[in-house]
Amino acid sequence: xxxxxxxEIRSLITEKEGKVETLATExxxxxxxxxxxxxxxKKEEREALKAELVQLRENxxxxxxxxxxxxxxxxxxxxETPQQKEYRDSLNEFIRxxxxxxxxxxxxxxxxxxxxxxxxxxxxxxxxxxxxxxxxTIPESISYNPQLEVKTVTxxxxxxxxxxxxxxxxxxxxxxxxxxxxxxVAELEANPAxxxxxxxxxxxAVQTYxxxxxxxxxxxxxxxxxxxxxxxxxxxxxxxxTTNYAIANVLKTFTAAPMSTLDDLxxxxxxxxxxxxxxxxxxxxxxxNVLDTLKDGNGRYLLQDSIISPSGKTxxxxxxxxxxxxxxxxxxxxxxxxxxxxxxxxFANRVDVTVRWVNHDIxxxxxxxxxxxxxxxxxxxxxxxxTYTAPIEGGSGE
Length: 398
Known about the structure:
CATH architecture of the domain at 115-176 and 200-398: Alpha-Beta Complex
Mean pLDDT: 77
Protein name: Phage major capsid protein
CATH topology of the domain at 115-176 and 200-398: phage-related protein like fold
Domain Phage capsid-like C-terminal: 135-367
Pfam families: Phage_capsid
Helix content: 25-40%
CATH class of the domain at 115-176 and 200-398: Alpha Beta
Low-confidence stretches: 70-78, 121-151
Number of helices: 8
Distance between the termini: 73 Å
Shape: elongated
Strand content: 15-25%
Keywords: Coiled coil
Number of strands: 15
Structural class: alpha+beta
Radius of gyration: 28 Å
Coiled coil: 13-73
């Protein structure tokens, strides 16, 4: 029973896929002849067919699961808007056609734009995507969504001062902390001269960072699942690693401060840093391990779980974010930035992720990914780069 129904659905899928391709050709021809109304009608017909294909593939998946004796789960409906769904489909066609089908795709500097809402910080594998990698998405017998590698990485960018750059370079004004005070004025007397706000201009120039995801021809031709999602997750992990590296390089340029004891740490937080700053700790794994062993005078650990902290951990009222040792140096590096990330780092974001096809010298082609941004030190007083050194034996570590 199921086999007959599955055969019927597969036949319908093949038939409608052929019609979608035919309509795409007809639309291009009508546009060349400037028959816009006819082209719009064909496009609506094509979109309706694509919606039917989505439903047919979902139905086929349900039958395949039932045939294998698996529990039939409720099909999760996409939360994407119709416009997002349309763009995802267009981007999928761009990838599968190796850049030939460009209809409906936005381009920047000759590269297809992957919108920010498609990106996901949870990453797929970090090597090339070949047929075996997307085998679970190829309808040989049963179709599942690919499982994602469990990996948690702190995204430092979202805690910086982000602005959308519309040009390749420029200046960004940072308002300095006000030091002037208001004056008392007697009734009917002239107002005193007011202090003007002071600004510090930060020069920035967007840099282009590139990487690549190799897709084999078999994967592109055989896969019936959304390759955009797989590519976007992989591309976003590469971008996350890149932005964290760039931000960490800025944090390392802040004034150095040594630390050997808890008292040293408290002095940096309470005295050295202006109390007006919204302080947090960006710690290497090794520095975090030091923090995890700190105790108060009653022997209670100072590092606490917190449901209100973005990182889930607090120390002396500050959120604690953990990064790899190698972002601040070598393995075993016990360093941390302590201060206000939002005031410390300016992040000029030009474009999130773009993709383009590049020939691959081994097999298939590279889907090259790129992101464009710049990171600069904004407020030089907003933090300190702290390095921990174990106290001399016999010294106080409390």
